[in-house]
Amino acid sequence: MAYANRTDLNNAMxxxxxxAAPGQTYGEATKQIEAQKAMPMGASPSDVSPAPTPGGLGxxxxxxxxxxxxxxAGVNFGDGMNAIQAGVNVPPRVxxxxxxxxxxxxxxxxxxxxxxxxxxxxxxxx
Length: 126
Fold this sequence. Notes:
Layout: H1 28-38, H2 83-86, H3 97-108, H4 112-123
């Protein structure tokens, strides 16, 4: 039986000898063999392509393979699609509530000391 939606399970139907890691404590090997009876191990993946070798993808200075796509495609500025359109998951920006509170206070009561505090707060990465 082949799995249409789970290609990782297609090799699971092939018989693979049940084995346990050597040198375990008493009873652990039996637990491993029992677990393999419940869900058999699949064969080793044979269709995995190896990582490209250095220079194997072509010269670094070769012409672009996407001449009609702007270099800014996938970022939130410039020409081309933005990050959401490109499928890039951008985490939502979480502003620090303390920094926001300091900025609100500064907008109502501007002074040099508070400006220095906000500047040091943002500069130090808090």
